[in-house]
Amino acid sequence: MTDIVTTAAGDASTAAEGPERPTQIFVPLCDLGIAPENIRAKEPADADIPQLAETIAVADILVALCVRPGRKGEKPFMALDGRRRKFGLDLLLEQGRVDASHPVRCDLFTTKAGEAAALVLTNAERCPVHVADVIVAIGKMGKSKMAPGEIAKALGYDEVEIRRLSALASLNAKAIKALKLGKITLKQARQLARISDPKEQGDLAQAALDGYLQDYQLASRVGRDRTDVNDVQVALVGLDRYVAAGGRVECDLFGELPDVLLDPEKLAELWEARAQPIVTALEASGLSVFLAGEKGFRAPEGFFNLPFVYQGDMSDETRTAYRAAQEVVARAYAALKTIDLSSDEADAAILSIQMARKDAAQMGLGRATVGAVILYPDAESGVSATFFANPEPEAEDGDDDADHETGGGYASPASPARVYDDVEVPRADIDVEGCSHVLHETQTDVATRGLIRDLADNPGAALTALLAQLFKHLALHGGVYADTSAVSISATRYSRGLTPAIPALDGDVRARLEARRAAYLESGLRPIGWVETLAHGEKMALLAELVAISLNLREMRTTSIRHSARAEAAEIAELCGADIAAHWTPDADYLKVHGKKQLMGLLGEMELDDPRAKTLKKDDLVTFTAEAAAERGWAPAVLSWQAGPQPVVDEAVDDTGDEPEANEDTATAEPEPEKIAA
Asked: d(Cα 622, Cα 603) in Å, to the nearest integer?
């Protein structure tokens, strides 16, 4: 054993009169083990051991290990306290940065009482250091003119970690206090550090101390005025073009958020420049073109939102042309997916999409024409658009029903007499003589609040109003706009491109709603009045049908799993005891999008082992599978919403040489065809 250097901590008389005074010794690393009675002897090394090893390499052992003499079969000295320090030294030994004879500073305990004290009290009586204290200490080092690099070198930390701690050290004092008291987490402290205004930091920290600070508030504040690499404009501009134009990019100090673009104005300028060829082409086609930063702007002055397009009212010729126009749009979107949006070759593809959408929009306008478009950034297509209509020209005498006869006309938002095709709108007789805009707004505001109060006390009336609003959106024909309804709740009927309804499933619900629409039209009443005439049971049935037809759980891609929506679907399915097989079993339309291996997998789920199936061509196998499912009243578990997503089989060509048929709806589905406005 290597010689041991010892230093007595007290004389013999003192040791005899009081507790054992440990002897400080330096033990070769190879002679040091971990005592089995060590409180954490069996715990493995944790993820922070490499950082501890770096600290030991720079500053050595600052707190001596507590050891006792080894017993039979043990190392000469066994650590009662200092397991993690021993792991750090072992890692340095493994890396060749120290040798086996490296001296380790230890305090040696030789009596039972001393060993017990070293074993328990070193842990029980030690106050753990809070991360807030470390942050404050780093801040004091910085104030003493120590550079982050110097601090990192002294402590054995990476310089970036010291910079992060220094950034936290500059937090408002209230934030540090909130962190130490556990009112905010370290993650929330990092969010506060991203806010440059100390006063605002202090206000938010005070809210945390009062118990009112939430994660979403911090995320909202940090995200305000922050443009990062995920901004929708970047898709069209590209980071390379942005940097080449002098745009600056800054990495997040804490490595948690996307890189920030420090010159958002330059990014916007570059996006407008990239969109200019599209602007020029659309202007040349006769449209007034406007640019916006995002979707959602109201119609420009003098133009109107596009009306709702209901294909059922179209003539066969118009419907065919409309669907052909939608197919052109879908093909244009599919072609764009193969192109880098930031490349120059994307310009023509993006323009072809918007021109095709303009043509499709025109199909549903009757006498009116598309007159304006607002272009805005879009991550999927680079540039997206919302089209607007010119005012509908005045109809000549005797032409009132001309458009309905051809199936090509729809009520324009410019027409005050009929806002919804199925709803008569009486003109209100309001005397506003001598009333200013501000006064009129105030009067209607207070009146609205009064009605809110009364309606809140009348659940029956509220149910009627809700059902009437949903009925207008989901069962009646015509456009429903926010300014034309008292209730601001909106809804959308489920659809998937041009895919027709499945008769036994959503087709049945649509048929029920169509029957209710016919009854409503026969009554001569308006929606609220008609709904109020229904018996309570009929109201509840109508409510169920309207809510059901508004469900939308479709996922466009295997990479776009809607986890939250799926969780709600599972809950709804459990509530109503859903069983799709009670209404429908897989038919040819459903099965033809499967490959042969997947079809064989479905047969396996049905526990049908028929040797003939392996010899069938794709079309025959589809028919065979459909018949087998119908005989058994069976539907795949993946359709139950209780199961996970169906595994994807990589199948370019199956074992019989048949190429799997493409799912055209999946390949081309983009915007919903019934409502042209983006």
From this structure: 11
Amino acid at 442: T
Q: H or E segment at 191?
A: helix 186-193
Q: Which of 131-135, 186-190, 652-656 has the highest mean pLDDT?
A: 186-190
Q: How far apart are CA 636 and CA 654, in angstroms?
A: 22
Candidates 235, 275, 266, 268; CA nearest to 375 is 275
Question: Whole-model pTM?
Answer: 0.45
Give me the pLDDT at residue 651, please. 41
Q: Which amino acid is at 571?
A: E
166: tokens are 């220094």
Q: How far apart are CA 672 and CA 678, in angstroms?
A: 9
Region 26-32: mean pLDDT is 94
Compute CA 78 distance to the chain's CA centroid, rounded to the nearest angstrom: 53
Q: Is 227 helix (H, G, I), strand (E, B) or coil?
A: coil
On whether the CB atoms of residues 477 and 513 are closer than 8 A, the answer is: no
Report the relative pairing of strands 23-28 and 103-108 from DSSP bridges.
antiparallel
pLDDT in tens, 193-232: 888 888 888 889 898 898 888 888 888 888 877 888 888 8
Distance of alpha carbon 643 from its chain centroid, rounded?
22
Query: Please, which residues have CB within 8 angstroms of residue 431's CB and are 6 or more apart in sequence?
Result: none
Q: Three-state SS across 115-160?
A: HHHHHHHHHHCCCCCCHHHHHHHHHHHHHCCCCHHHHHHHHCCCHH
Are residues 54 and 92 in contact, defined by beta-carbon separation less than 8 angstroms? no
Query: Which of 359, 378, 377, 379 is CA-nearest to residue 369?
Result: 359
H/E stretch holding 103 reads: strand 103-108
CA distance 635 to 578: 12
Nearest to 415 by CA among 469, 467, 503, 481: 481
Is the pLDDT reported for residue 154 higher than 50?
yes
> What sign does the dihedral 601-605-606-611 (CA atoms) show?
positive
Do the Cβ atoms of 545 and 513 come closer than 8 Å?
yes
Residue-level pLDDT at 25: 93
| Residue 672, pLDDT above cutoff 70 | no
Per the CB < 8 A criterion, the answer to whether 476 and 417 are in contact is no
Cβ neighbours of residue 384 closer than 8 Å, sequence gap 6 or more: 295, 375, 376, 377, 378, 678
Q: How many contiguous H segments (helices) and E segments (strands) does the chain have? A: 27, 12
Q: Residue 580: how many CA atoms within 13 Å on its side-chain side? A: 18
Residue 468: which of 545, 537, 544, 530 has the closest Cα?
Answer: 530
Whole-number Å distance between alpha carbons of 9 and 23 = 6
Please say if the pLDDT value at position 615 is more than 70.
Answer: yes
